[in-house]
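I trust your eye. Have a critical look at both lines of this record:
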Amino acid sequence: MKTIAQVTYIPLYTDHPKEQVQDIIEFVAQHDVEVDVNYLSTTVIGETDVVFDLIREIYDEMMIEGQKFRLHVELLSPTEE
């Protein structure tokens, strides 16, 4: 089974939102998932544990960096491999 998540990261109170979004996209690409970058969100497809761990890592990393942000995650039903 593969889990599909649409992730939208919105940096708040920053002068460089595009750079922060690009950093998140590069961070996601380093993981063992398929990545499809769209205009408003990024679709991530992978093993369920990997996708959920990745979402948690994004959240934790931005908290550690003291960023103000909104993280929208939409989970689609799992697909067969």
Summary: Residues 2-79 form a domain with the Alpha-Beta Plaits fold (CATH 3.30.70.930). The two ends are 5 Å apart (CA to CA). The chain has one domain: 2-79.
